[in-house]
Records
---
Amino acid sequence: MASMQKRLQKELLALQKDPPPGVRVDEASVTKSLSTWQVDMDGAPGTLFEGEKFQLLFKFGPRYPFDSPQVVFTGPNIPVHPHVYSNGHICLSILTEDWSPALSVQSVCLSIISMLSSCKEKKRPPDNNFYVRTCSKNPKKTKWWYHDDSV
Amino acid sequence: MAEANSKPGESLDKALPSGVEYDEAIMAQQDRIQQEIAETSQLIGDHEDLLLLSKEYSEEDNVYQGKIKDLRSKYKCFRRTRGDGNCFYRAFGFSYLERLLDDRKDLERFKEVAAKSKDMLVSLGFPAFTVEDFHDTFMEVVEKVEQQIPVEDLLATFRDQGLSDYLVVYLRLLTSGYLQQNEDFFVNFIESYASVKEFCGHEVEPMARESDHIHIIALTSSLDVGVRVEYMDRAGSEEVNHHDFPEGTEPKVFLLYRPGHYDILYK
């Protein structure tokens, strides 16, 4: 537990001091134990999401950074993207199978910005309705089937 | 996208558990298996007689019994490691640092190599502040070795899951770093990934991803530490075959390979 908080403290400071473009930690959302944060994100200029604003919710377990954080889109605007379900769940391999303890909140944000930026057509995943109806609240409890890194 | 375990449709929904129940059941089972492994085996075990190995195979199994006999003629004993997908890194890390307790000269060389490795990783684009965390912990353990702590203390470090995993992460990063630095060479051995970087992101950096020859070549080359792997598998005669990594170096660490797993051997 102590190493989780030490690490998150370090990450929080780094992200406040030197955030990637379009990314801001919502300081009021950070819980005392550091186990939940909200991050505001702007759609990158020159992409289909330019001008849109999104919120990401990060939850960290006691085994962080060995276990990946739970990350979902939250708030009024969930990006319409082939890897983002309308309940905010994101299909991105580094959030489950390919998570490495050397990754960080910042690298997750960068991967999500890059995923949104390479989108060519705004649409929901083909199985959105079925998934949203049946899934667990925690996206880490879904056995994701990563099939296309190019979208 | 989410794995479609069953097709959408009302009647089917009622007849079968939903996708999420399958998923949760599979993951719960995987967790249970991991927990069972953790309860029954230490991250690094105590010294054990190689004779104990022969009880794990049928007496009529001539190939394995022959190989164990051969192994006993070459080694004194062994330590088991936990089969959690990190066994190669943990076995290598512990066995080499244990050896450095008695080899001052090599320790000085290794300390220098290890100290420089952080900048190498950062220059490859690994985020400095996460690498730093793992590097610092790694160097603290190297310094303890320099102070010649008793082997029991080193063992306790490697048996402490939190600390031990920090060390495994750093060894994984070094492996990834070496592969990426020598991308032109290693790209020839990578199948089903578009680049060495992508391979590392999937097969090296995440915890619990198992090691193959390519990982061993990279880590041993990166630290310039020779490792001999004794292969105990179905192949060939009643003698164990060995392979030295990197090829032609004098081995300082001896590992026993049985399909999917590495334990530590002692001369």
Note: Chain A is about 25% helix and 15% strand.
---
Amino acid sequence: MSTQADAAAGTGVAPVPGPRRVALVGNPNTGKTTLFNRLCGLRHKTSNFPGTTQEARIGAVRGGAGPEVHLVDLPGVYSIELELPESEVCRRVLAGQLAAPGEAPGEPDAVCVVLDATNLPRNLVLAGEVLRRRLPTVVAVNMIDLARRRGLSPDAVVLARELGCPVVLVSARTGEGLERPGELLDLATIPTHTPPGTQDGVEAWAERIALAALSQPTPHAPGRRPLSDRMDALLLHPVSGTLVFALVMAGLFAAVFKVATYPMDWIDAIFTHAGGLVHAVLPEGLLGELVSEGVVAGVGATVVFLPQICLLFFLISMLEDTGYLARAAMAMDRVLRPFGLPGHAFVPLLSSHACALPGIMAARGVPDRRDRLATILVAPFMTCSARLPVYVLVTGVLFPRSPLLASAAFVGAYALGIVAGLASALIARRTVLRGPARPMVMELPSYKVPSLRTSLLTTWDRGFMFLKKAGTNILAICVVLWWLGAFPHVDPPARAVELREQAAALVASPDPSGPDPVALRAEADRLESAHAKARSLIGRMGRAVSPVFEPLGCDWRLTVGVLASFAAREVFVSTMAVLVVGEEDFEEEGVLRAITSATRDDGHTPVFTTATAASILVFFVLAMQCLPTLVVTARETGHSKWALLQFGWMSAVAYALALVVFQGLRAAGVS
Amino acid sequence: MPMGDWQFWLVTAIAVLAAALVARAALPPRFLPRFLRRRKGTRAPLTVGGKPVGGERR
């Protein structure tokens, strides 16, 4: 690490012993997370900073001279002095007012400021703000490989002299300058200079240092624009940019559908075998039924979607790392503007595709109050990851033999959510939120080769969080639903008793021309199970509410599924599994097939007819079925009336459109 | 209800625990009894050299 030695020498200050806790600070798109992953690998945990929805990643770094270092990855910010949630988190962590979960409160022992080597003037403004805090600091000038390719050569010694702290030139993507990761953080020292305190002063200071540290860029060949400019011309063009965006999204979802099928089948088979194993190991009775029908079937029905969720986040992470997603945001700005939403709304709406909660919190970055309210109100229309299991299940029912059509329906569901959100924004901005919109200003990150390591670690994080949810909340909901579906015990129906007697008589005196006693017993089992479920506590609740959802094609089972999903959308699939398993033999055909082939009380009409599946899909795209989102909406808007408006509007739109779809398909002869 | 079956009481106890977990995850703290509420995150006043500092922007 010659660069480190040079930089440390440049300050004239010897490195202090390794810090215990280091905060990682940087602008967005500086490769901060890639550096975190390079330093910590899998030795990290993800949670939220207490009392915030800002994600906190804490990793352990080994290999330094001192004791083990805990590295805290702070949100990417342009300034720590802004009144934005992510800036506040950075400010409070650096001030010792906020600690990540599991960490003792107090100022960090050191700060590592990550700068983008291709954009030093702006990045140095943040470095100046951090240096003013007088904490032991080391500056990592990242993406040095990219800078060199562009003819930029930042001088680490000049930078270290001007900043008054050690400076290291690194490439988190290739590992350059990070051969011994722990040593980087051991270099932190208290800065020898204090940057100016005013905003204008620090900007001029940053400009001066950048000029001093950067050699002149290599001039481009005359008459030929740089490749990034030519790519921007294509990706930001109103027609080609939108076309590329549509193609990228369609390709992404087609890949998710096609590739994830194989691991999904494996997971389904594992849970199917687990159900059989439980029956074999546990004594016969209620406990065995709880484990096999409640826990294994219910959790298995959710976990089976893990490959699709992992693949989706992996591909999105790769796209983000290339710098394309920011271009997509610019391309989409033209689409948002006619609907009364500012360009600033794109980031909250894009975040809402993972989860509406961070999306709504990100709306704090929308400067105008009316714009912010409109963004918050429509954010839950965007398809969050909790809807994915329902989409996969229902599109599979609609197009069982065509993955291409199923993926088209999947993309259509995403598009419907976006269209409904934009239309709702337009209505809101012309009625309750009338007023002008502000123009969008956004910095486009450099194009980069995506980091496989970063994408894999992001995928691991998201997959682990999904499994954690399936292993806690969804497991708990499955247990409760199983109990409500198992009691009270009722006498078997007369027809089932009759079939059993008939089967017993046939076994006692076989009749080759008569019915098969095994088939008679299977039919008696099905009738008994359906009778018991229909008269259980949950069956009675479902029947009481089912008149509301009958016009959408729902029977009592689907009604219970829809109601249960108001706790969390993905619970719908688990609920259907718990309600169906017992009536259908899932040990032979797998949980998902058992759900899709389940029949209603009459024994022959499928629970999911084509019209019902389409209606359910539309309902889940549009309905507000997330209690935490309503709570956050009320908190962020400062009044529960906005949460009530959001719930009422989304529920009404979802019900009305699902009704139109179901009744329309029925009228067209589609059952 | 199969009151005489020990397994009934066991699965009922598990279901009650599960219902408490669901309520804890889904409901705002003010609607929950005290023992079900999540513990608040760690916060500490800003100090420099052991002395409190005022005027810090929040």
Note: Chain A touches chain B through 39 residues (CB under 8 Å).
